[in-house]
Structure formats: structure tokens, C-alpha cells
Amino acid sequence: MKERYLQSVRLLSECYHAFEQLSASHVRDSGLTPSQFDILATLGNTQGMCFRELGDKTLITKGTLTGVVDRLEQKGLVRRGALPDDRRMKIVQLTAEGEKEFARLFAPHIAFCKSAFGGYEDVDFTRLEETLAKLKHHLVGPDAE
Asked: What would the CATH number be for the domain defined by 12-116?
């Protein structure tokens, strides 16, 4: 018996993977991995954030996050520090060089990824967002973010 929803799940998965490949290819051309770019993009225009918040916002697991931050630190793009009011909590911040990289890479990457949606109009985005929000509600519940 073929379940009807499987066709939709497959199409959703194929779209996600196609977009990820498109984005990752563009990011790699800049000399960063997708995870490194994700961290730079997340830290951009912030004063930095603790590892837990950074992990939550990037969806990178804690073990992987530490290694990615290590490599960005070696490249001189981020630094670790302590919060002034809680010296035990480590914060990750962009360095001046990291800020330059963020400024150089972020807007062009957003524009590049936007080109994949060239035929979309506001009504298309609204319909897509409503459908995805409904699916998310069924998967994780109304209170999940």
C-alpha cells in the first residue's frame, strides 16, 4: 500500500537537498565550509553569543560546533571570550577580520540564493509559508519555534 504523504515528503526532501547543494556550492567557492559560513552569518551584526545559543541558532551539534569554531578561530575570523557578568560562560564573537568576511560574503550569498526563487511572487511565498507552517504545526506542535 502506497502512502499518499510519502510523495509530498519526498518532494520536500528533494527541494531541501537541492537548495542546500546550491547554497553549499556557492559558500565553498568563498573558501569556507557551509558550517563555517553558517556561524559567520549567525554572528554577523551581533555582539557575539554563547555556544548554546549559537548551536540553537545554527542547528550545529555541540561536538561539531566546537571544531568549526576552532577552525574559524585558526583563520582569525572569530574569538572566544568570557561574558563580563559570568566569566564561566564562553562567548564567540567575530573578530575585525570576521566582520570583514561577513560583510564581503553575506549579502552576495543571499542574493545568489534568492535567484533560485526568481519566478516567485508574494502570493507564492505566502502560500508556501502557510503550507510549511501547517506541516510544522503537525510535526512539532503549536508552541515549537
From this structure: 1.10.10.10
